[in-house]
Amino acid sequence: MIYSLTGNIIFTQPDLCVIECGGVGYACKTTMNTVSKVSGLSSCTLYTYMAVREDAIDLFGFYTKDELECFKLLTSVSGVGAKFALAILSSMTPASVALAIASDDIKALSKVKGIGSKIAQRIVMELKDKVAEGAVLDSSGEVGAITAAVSDNNKAEAIAALVVLGYSQSEAAQAVAKCPGELETDEIIKRALRTLASGRF
């Protein structure tokens, strides 16, 4: 298994980065986020994942370990292959994917080209427990706080009210998660609205 590649960047395109190591050019399928990170660099390190099938061997490379871990998490979902996972990670960061899953934000995932609501629902359903229990992609602790907020009745009601007001599920859940516990729904909404208005996320 190839853990990572470090070398000169000899070619890039929106879904590919070729790195030369020891005279060999390794073609890594990747995301637009990774390509934008390495743009302008002469060399870099990519964290890799090799998929071996009967008819092909594919190498995937990512600028951060979080992106790699998110890719592996997404491809563990039934019906979500590498193509869909790369599309999601080209439009969203690993942290925003984790937040969308934790807050049941199916709309955020289904906005990605090629990802319909059915696939988005399956991603949330199959990964929510993994994201919550393993604190996956959650170095800030924010996903854990959102998971707790969604399961709290008053906070869940506040999130629903904020969504009705036009905020996305992820935005509402992030704001509500910052509110202290044991508040009434009305007070949670007021505090969350202040957080949303200030943009402090």
Keywords:
201 residues, alpha+beta, five-stranded antiparallel β-sheet
Largest sheet: 5 strands, antiparallel
Mean pLDDT across all residues, rounded?
86
Number of strands: 5
Share in β-strands: 15-25%
The first-to-last residue Cα distance is 38 Å
Strand order of the largest sheet: 3-2-1-4-5
Total helical segments: 10
Lay out the secondary structure.
Blueprint: E1 4-13, E2 16-21, E3 24-29, H1 32-38, E4 43-52, E5 57-62, H2 65-75, H3 82-91, H4 94-102, H5 106-110, H6 117-134, H7 142-151, H8 153-164, H9 169-177, H10 185-198
Helix pairs in contact: 2-3, 2-4, 4-6, 7-9, 8-9, 8-10, 9-10
Word description of this protein:
With 201 residues, the protein is of the alpha+beta class. Helices cover 52% and strands 19% of the residues. It has ten helices and five strands. The chain has helices spanning 32-38, 65-75, 82-91, 94-102, 106-110, 117-134, 142-151, 153-164, 169-177, 185-198; strands at 4-13, 16-21, 24-29, 43-52, 57-62. The protein has a five-stranded antiparallel beta sheet. A hairpin with a 2-residue loop joins strand 1 (4-13) and strand 2. Helix 2 (65-75) crosses helix 3, helix 4 (94-102) crosses helix 6 (117-134) and helix 8 (153-164) packs across helix 9 (169-177). The model has no long low-confidence stretch (mean pLDDT 86).
